[in-house]
Amino acid sequence: MRRFELSEGTSNKFWQVEREDASVTVCFGRIGTNGQSQVKSFASATAAQAEMDKVIKEKTKKGYAEVAVAAGATSPAPKPAAPKPVAAPPPPAALTSAHSTPIESAPAPPAAAAVGTIAWTDAALRDASPMRGRDVIVPRKPDAKHLHSKLAAAMKAFGPLLDAGAASTGADKARMAAARAAYAGAMPEKLDPEAEAAAFALIGPCVAWNDTSRTEDFIGYWLAKEGPSFALHTVVQGRRLQSQVSEKHITLSEGDESSPRPWFRTRNREDWRGIRLAAALADDATYAALVKEAEGLLEGPSIERRALLAAAFERPEWIESDLATIAASAHPPDYFWPLLASAPSLEDAKALSARVPQTNVWYLAAGMDRLRFDMVARYGVAAGAFLSDIVVQAGSSGVDRMRSIAEAIALVVTPEVAAFFVKQLGAKELRAIAAQYLQSHPQVSVVPLAQAAVNKGPLGESAKAVLKPIVASGHAAVNEARVSLAPAAQNVIAQLEEQTRPRPQASPDELPSFLRTPPWTVKTKGAAPTVLALTPLPFAETMAWKPGEEKQRAGGRWLEEQPEKVAENLAKVKERSASVPTPTERSWNMLNASIFANLPKKELLEILPSLNLGRFNWSYYGVASTLVARHGVDMIPFALRSAEVEGLGAVEALQRANAARVAPLMADALARLKKARPTAAEWLAAFPEAAAVGLVPGAVGKPGRDRANAEAALRFVASRGHRAIVESAAAKYGAEASAGVTQILEFDPLLTVPTKIPKLPSFWNAAGFTAPLLRGGQKALPPSAIDAIGTMLAFTSTDDPYAGIAAVKEACEPASLADFAWDVFQAWLVAGAPSKEAWALHALGFFGDDDAARKLTPLVRAWPGEAAHARAVIGLDVLARIGTDVALMHLHGIAQKLKFKGLQEKAGEKIEQIAEARGLSAEELADRLVPDLGLDDNGSLTLDFGPRAFRVVFDEALKPAVLDEQSKRLPDLPKAKQTDDAEKAKEATERWKALKKDAKTIATGQILRLEIAMCAQRRWPAAVFRQFLLEHPLLVHVVRRLVWGVYDDAGKVRGSFRVAEDASLANEKDDAFDLADDAQVGIVHRLDLDDAAAAAWGQVLSDYEIIQPFAQLSREIAVPTDADRAAKKLDRVVGLEVPTGKVLGLDDRGWRRGPPQDGGVVCWYEKPLAGGLMLYLDLDPGIFTGMISESPKQKLGSVTLNKGEYLWSASDTSLPFGDLAPIPFSELLRDLDSLRG
Description:
Elements: E1 2-8, E2 11-20, E3 23-30, E4 36-41, H1 45-61, E5 65-67, E6 95-97, E7 117-120, H2 122-127, H3 144-157, H4 159-166, H5 173-182, H6 193-203, H7 215-225, H8 228-240, E8 241-245, E9 250-254, H9 263-266, H10 271-281, H11 284-296, H12 303-313, H13 323-327, H14 336-342, H15 346-353, H16 361-379, H17 382-394, H18 399-409, E10 412-413, H19 415-424, H20 431-440, H21 442-453, H22 458-472, H23 476-482, H24 487-500, H25 513-516, E11 542-543, H26 549-554, H27 566-578, H28 601-607, H29 623-631, H30 636-642, H31 647-653, E12 657-658, H32 663-672, H33 677-686, H34 688-699, H35 705-732, H36 735-746, H37 783-795, H38 803-811, H39 814-830, H40 839-847, H41 850-862, H42 869-882, H43 885-896, H44 901-917, H45 922-928, E13 941-944, E14 949-954, E15 960-963, E16 969-970, H46 982-1015, E17 1020-1021, H47 1022-1030, H48 1036-1039, E18 1044-1047, E19 1053-1059, E20 1065-1066, E21 1080-1083, H49 1091-1103, H50 1122-1126, E22 1129-1130, E23 1137-1139, H51 1140-1144, E24 1152-1153, E25 1161-1168, E26 1173-1184, E27 1193-1203, H52 1222-1234
Parallel strand pairs: 6-7
Antiparallel strand pairs: 1-2, 1-5, 2-3, 3-4, 7-10, 8-9, 11-12, 13-14, 14-15, 15-16, 17-21, 18-19, 18-21, 19-20, 22-27, 23-27, 24-25, 25-26, 26-27
Helix pairs in contact: 3-7, 5-6, 6-8, 7-10, 8-10, 10-12, 12-14, 14-15, 14-16, 16-17, 16-18, 17-18, 19-20, 19-21, 21-22, 21-23, 21-24, 22-24, 22-39, 29-30, 29-31, 30-31, 32-33, 32-35, 34-35, 35-36, 39-40, 40-42, 41-42, 41-43, 42-43, 42-44, 43-44, 43-46
């Protein structure tokens, strides 16, 4: 029988053929199955052989590769004999599989792996070391010629090092010369064992830390040329030789296996595996002879050799007498790994692993990465706990090796392993492997999953996400688990059963047509497109800068003009532009494009047409953006040319250019440049006339990518409310163009689907997700329709969403869509959150609701600390797209306070974009983002239980409390009684839970926002004050506890008031206060009041028993001295050493962390002030981003005041503190005093 295999993408197939006389038997199928068999009969054995040879030739042309099949294997593979047992350990674990059909060379498993067995996969079987006594699928027969050529190339590459080594004192020149001669020419007919052993010793192991071992190549070569006996003796002889390696030479001398070697020379030595493979495949006679030869090599002092042979021949008794000596050693020996694979028992293996110091547990994990499947095969289910302990001890020391060890643990089907993997759901490193294991083995996973799902936070959510498809499938393990679960865990299962219970499914006739027959499944032929050759119309070009933006972009370090060097720089530019690339040229040694910013406009315009921009390094500084900011529309041609080498930079440079010729670039970016797409979308929406004038010629031009991009961009502009502008611009190009554009705009957007439709990923499980319900009834979408939604999500653009997304929202109940989207997101998250399927996160933006925003926000806040900043940025986009008050509240909260500055700034940018779209400042938007939580006009809420009712009130910290019908404060909302209306009580209880959760999220941020507004001296027009503060049902509880002032244009208080319980206004004498419509209102700072007014207000608050939400009237104040006013540095806390937590507390006082410097260290804190001023407080040693525990204390430095960017040598740009107004100065000293407490 001959077997061939093909692995291509996700496809893994086999094909095998066997001839018996005049019949040919062919078997084919997926690797890991028995496949299908066909038998063909021919007129003669010769004809049968000819057909067999012909088909084999066809298969190899298609990429199939022949693999060796163990002796005795047939088609289909029979069950092998049990492995030969050894004296001490139990026999290797029974080989069962998680597949429903048997792995070709493993015993056929039951339908599901039984508890207490090993669920072997074909991949694991291939990676495990071969074991004699079971069928083995091995790589194709070694190609001696290929391996000789490969080893000869390595010998040649190390030639200079070998030359230097041969000239060194003590080198065994004869052996080295023989080794090099063996690989200097054609492959010899007969191999010289001495020369081969020397070559093996010289270059077999790794030659440097970043090298790859060649030991397996050598053994494969020897096996192919001379057989297993030669390979065995040559390996042993090679290990007796001692090679010395350094950066300057490789040399060889007589030694033995115990001689010390560099660590990288012992890493990845897999010579014992090659011998083991030969032994496993040998017939009985050859095997017996090999064992006898190996036994003759056991004598002598070398424990390493015995470890090698014991591992190669699976004879642990050969090493048993050496275990005591090894256990007494101070450190693990070099032959530690084959020893672990051949230990007499698991207890012996544990004792060996205990020799690894706890501080070097990574060493154990690194080697176990390669031995992981051997340990399972050798020690059975008990290996699961052993390997789990290694993973736990090693922590995050090498994520890839942790995952590979987890793959071996996942073969073991036991409750203990299930419990281990449930814990891993809370950690990003092993979450995907854990989820796959737990869903594959419900018989052991349901109980620990249900227990974990009771918890709040990421672990509980992940456990529910994994458990939900199991519950939805109706697996018997779910019912069996109930008796052993606590009530809370039983409730989780009951809730999941309710969410996944079968609901009446909509019939095909009830489905919207785009879900019944998705547009991408049918081919449609539209009308012939209009094709015209048009010249773009003239367009008056302008720049539309935002305040301060032009100046900000025009500057920059290394981008100043150099009039004194014009001739020199021009010569450099021309020389570089005309030059030819050299072989050693890389981007870092090319002339930087920043040189263009050193040239005046006149020279730039002169040389632009002849420039070869590809000969410059465009990696830094945003040169095109700077030039456009400096020289305006004259630099549009330069920026458009720069798109040839730096597309993203060109799009950003032209972001504010109101110019028709920019439109094709933006259309291309919208369609093709993922990172530039948001900017392109913003430009198209901001300049619809320029876009239309610039795009019409391309949209009706020659078919191709440019036309498709122009068409899509025109539809985008029209969809943003600018269709009339598009039609008007088209009309200017004539009737034919107008008709062609109308045809483009009338195109059914549901037909705008990509040519290549993506496949849904492995985590997609339509039957396991909450099924969206059609509006107006309780009919659920069938799995086929859910798959259609998944496909839409997979191919849609987030900047210009596919029309089907909006159609789905229109067709389905919002709450059910939100639940569905959360299930999709959770499935993606537990699958390891693969970035190419991030559309599963975007699904929350399209279909999510307030509850989704609440659950997503803590994850977004945490992701940067898990090295998932990019995912967190997407999370910000999702919150913005959800767009409800609650979602935007959470987004604003991230912008206000977060320990990860990069994400905080991104959130701030997102808030500014939303504010700009609404014509507001970020502060004005914040006023409008405070949810009212469904409270009534009096700021209260009634929770209706039917016969009973309860009222919600709030204290000064916005903490809600419940009053009964006698206005008695209760510790919590009571549980429902039998006499209550069950439905109303349930609804009221859920409402109370959501209210407490939202109030907790809102309270601290809103109170802090108002305190910062007081310190920043923010003012509100009277109408805005009334609408968003006084009349806000939640914020009014804080507003009532503060003293407010009316301010004149000079910032002086002209009257103060408070808000009474009945919403009336009163002054410090408790007289009515009249607030004029044109008044400017602010929160009074203590420095705004003289002592008499402060005392009067203090008495009012005392009389009414009003507790303020923060220190207002009682606020500490400070006045600067003359020396303070003149100083450019404030040294009041210099040298003070404080816990880092104290510094972090400044976040609540309007400060923020400075941008991380080298090594991710935050070296200063900064506080933005009005007028572009910034305070800076130096820190030593600084705060390590993501590792605050590494810097537990900070020595404080000076405080400086600057305008603009902080520089290390900032003393010459610092401002005197006299430039600070009294209130900011007082607050600064108050902030510094807080560090002393």
